[in-house]
Amino acid sequence: MGFLQAHGQVLTSWKQSYMDALFEIDKSKLRQRIDAAETAVVLRTRELFQSPEENLQERRALEAALCALRALRRIAQNQPPLAGDRNGLAA
Predict the structure, then answer these.
(1) What per-residue confidence (pLDDT) applies to 84?
(2) What's the pLDDT score for residue 52?
(3) Cα torsion for 89, 20, 48, 87, to the nearest 10°?
(4) What pLDDT is stored for residue 85 in this prediction?
(5) Which of 33, 45, 82, 83 is the most exposed place for a label (fewest CB within 10 A)?
(6) What is the mean pLDDT of each run of 10 residues along the chain (91 residues)?
(7) pTM of the model
(8) What is the pLDDT of residue 53?
(9) Which residues of 8-43 are buried (b: 16+ CB within 10 A; e: fewer)?
């Protein structure tokens, strides 16, 4: 399913990729799942940026998802949180 398809399919696609990364239990697949989810979130964020509609709720969900994916990546890499890290963003 392409990311530039109908709105509902795109929304489902980024959310599904995000959930796949969050619930991946196979460590050998986790990095790939995180990469795919980050790509899907970024592509959807770009689409919303170009959209005349506000979509504030989805924009917030995308921002939260990206922060969670960054935190998950750090955990998967056994790295400590960044100093001053708040919601996945460095201060």
Answers:
(1) 57
(2) 84
(3) -20
(4) 54
(5) 83
(6) 46 88 95 97 93 89 96 87 54 41
(7) 0.73
(8) 85
(9) eebbebbbebbebbeebeeeeebeebbebbbebbeb
Residue with tokens 């489902």: 12
Q: How far is residue 6's CA from residue 8's CA, in Å, rounded to a whole number? A: 6
Q: Tokens representing 58?
A: 């989805």
Round to whole Å and give the CA distance between 33 and 17. Answer: 7
Domain ranges in the chain are 7-76
Measured distance CA(83)–CA(73) in Å, rounded: 16
Listed residue (31, 29, 63) closest to 44, CA to CA: 63
What residues are paired with 86 via a beta bridge?
A: 89
